[in-house]
């Protein structure tokens, strides 16, 4: 069964990623308007009524702000850890969410939605209980890892063996350093519970590189401290300098901030 992924929107202003097979349609986060989600899904031939669930990574507004409107219209299950769900419900502009939609998940415990096996695992980020997800169907694996300030063996173990890596390349360190963000925010972004820089993202990808990897999609770019060409070139430079990485063996792309990107099928 082919696995599919499409970034509906990705960046510090709002995130929503579609992952599916021919039998199951899922969204990771919904930090954009319902209308934008519908436009993105329709563009890749997925009826928004067929979404089987939304998986929340963490309660930051760029990941949850569209969930209330979407849930009221489509009433699909929403998967989140208990702490993340409680924090999500405290987000003031979410509005009322219909009762009974929340499904509790636990980091490091696989669960299934139809023919998809989903594995949530902890990430290093300044939210209450942040997770990243991997998705498996038969022998294919897609990983979605954004909003992590650093990585270790545990993160590497969880992401290893992916056919598609959707991975954060949030900022260029020099642009961030000289940019207009206040000092505390610069410090937060660069911390171990902030976001991955382009260089660190490249290093993580090089660590994960193996022959099964066919697509790397860079996402969650900062509007102020990065731009698509810079993220692409920075990551490519890191990878090109690694003797064990063959850059011709996989496709490297950057997810669009405001609209849907191409549908990747493996
Ligand atoms: Zn975040
Ligand atoms: Zn975020």
UniProtKB/TrEMBL annotation:
Coiled coil: none
SUPFAM superfamilies the UniProt entry points to: Metallo-hydrolase/oxidoreductase
Domain annotation Metallo-beta-lactamase: ranges: 13-188
Signal peptide coordinates: none
InterPro entries xrefs: Metallo-B-lactamas, RibonucZ/Hydroxyglut_hydro, WalJ/YycJ-like
Pfam families referenced in this protein's UniProt entry, alphabetically: Lactamase_B_2 (PF12706)
Protein name: MBL fold metallo-hydrolase
Organism: Vallitalea guaymasensis
Record lineage: Bacteria, Bacillati, Bacillota, Clostridia, Lachnospirales
């Amino acid at each position: 069964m082919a696995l599919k992924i499409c970034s509906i929107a990705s960046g510090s202003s709002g995130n929503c990623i579609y992952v599916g097979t021919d039998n199951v349609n899922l969204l990771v986060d919904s930090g954009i308007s319902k209308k934008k989600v519908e436009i993105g899904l329709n563009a890749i031939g997925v009826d928004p009524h067929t979404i089987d669930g939304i998986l929340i990574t963490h309660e930051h507004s760029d990941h949850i702000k569209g969930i209330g409107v979407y849930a009221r219209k489509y009433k699909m299950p929403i998967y989140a850890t208990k702490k993340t769900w409680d924090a999500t419900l405290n987000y003031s502009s979410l509005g009322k969410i219909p009762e009974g939609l929340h499904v509790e998940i636990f980091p490091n415990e696989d669960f299934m939605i139809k023919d998809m096996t989903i594995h949530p695992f902890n990430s290093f980020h300044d939210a209450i209980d942040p997770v990243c997800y991997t998705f498996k169907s038969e022998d294919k694996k897609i990983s979605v890892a954004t909003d992590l300030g650093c990585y270790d063996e545990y993160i590497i173990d969880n992401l290893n063996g992916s056919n598609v890596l959707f991975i954060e390349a949030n900022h260029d360190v020099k642009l961030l350093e000289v940019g207009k963000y206040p000092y505390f925010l610069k410090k937060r972004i660069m911390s171990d519970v902030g976001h991955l820089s382009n260089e660190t993202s490249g290093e993580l990808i090089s660590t994960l590189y193996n022959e099964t990897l066919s697509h790397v999609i860079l996402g969650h770019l900062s509007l102020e401290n990065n731009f698509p060409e810079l993220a692409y070139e920075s990551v490519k430079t890191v990878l090109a300098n690694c003797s064990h990485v063959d850059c011709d063996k996989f496709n490297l792309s950057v997810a669009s901030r405001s609209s849907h990107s191409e549908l990747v099928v493996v």
